[in-house]
Amino acid sequence: MKKILLIDDNPMNNNGYIQPLKQKYDVVVVMSIIAAKRKLRFHKFDLIIIDIMMPTPGVQCTDELSTGLYFYSEEIQPKFPKTPVLFWSNLNHEKYDNYFNRQSPSNVNFLHKNYENEKHLLEKVTEIFA
Fold first, then answer.
1. 117 phi and psi angles, rounded to 5 deg
2. Could you give the CA distance from residue 82 to residue 115 in angstroms, rounded to a whole number?
3. Alpha-helix residue ranges (DSSP H) falling in the chain
4. How many CB atoms sit inside 10 A of residue 62's CB?
5. Domains along the chain?
6. How many C-beta atoms lie closer than 10 Å to residue 79's C-beta?
7. What is the greatest pairwise CA distance in the chain?
C-alpha cells in the first residue's frame, strides 16, 4: 500500500477530503513542519502532500502564505528529490506558479482545495500514482 505524508495545520477542517484518501492509502497526517521533519527522518513516503499556508516554525521564512513552498525547498527537494509532492491550497495557483517561476519540477503538482468535491484530493493522488 502506498504511504502518504499529509502536512496540514487544519486537518479537522479538511477531514472530508482526507478520509477518502485514507480508505485507499496509508496516510500519515501531521499538523506542523517540525512534526513532518520528524516523520521524514524515520519513514519513507511515496507521496508528500503539503498545505502551502502553514505556521512558520521549522522553516527559514516568516510568510505563512508560503511556508509549504519553503519547506519543500529547504527539506524535501534536497533530501527527497524524486519523491512526488502535491501542494494543496486554498490559495489560487498564482502563488505556486510564481514561486517556481512557472516551471515546477516534474515530480511536483498543485491542487486547489475544492469544497464542492470531497473526492478531489483522492482523484488527484490516484492520478499521480497512475
1. -130, 100
2. 30
3. 15-24, 33-42, 67-71, 77-79, 93-99, 120-129
4. 9
5. 3-129 (3.40.50.2300)
6. 11
7. 36
pTM over 0.85: yes
Strand, helix or coil at 110?
A: strand
Query: Do 47 and 84 touch, CB atoms closer than 8 A?
Result: yes
- End-to-end, the C-alpha distance of the chain in Å comes to 14
Residue 22 has pLDDT above 80, yes or no: yes
From 25, 22, 24, 23, select the one nearest 11 (Cα to Cα). Answer: 22
As a whole number of angstroms, the distance between CA 13 and CA 24 comes to 20
Read off the C-alpha cell for 119. 473526492
Cell of 43: 519513514
Q: In Å, how far from its chain's centre is CA 24? A: 17
pLDDT digits (tens, 9 = 90+) for 99-120: 898 788 999 999 998 878 889 9
Grid cell listed for 82: 524524486
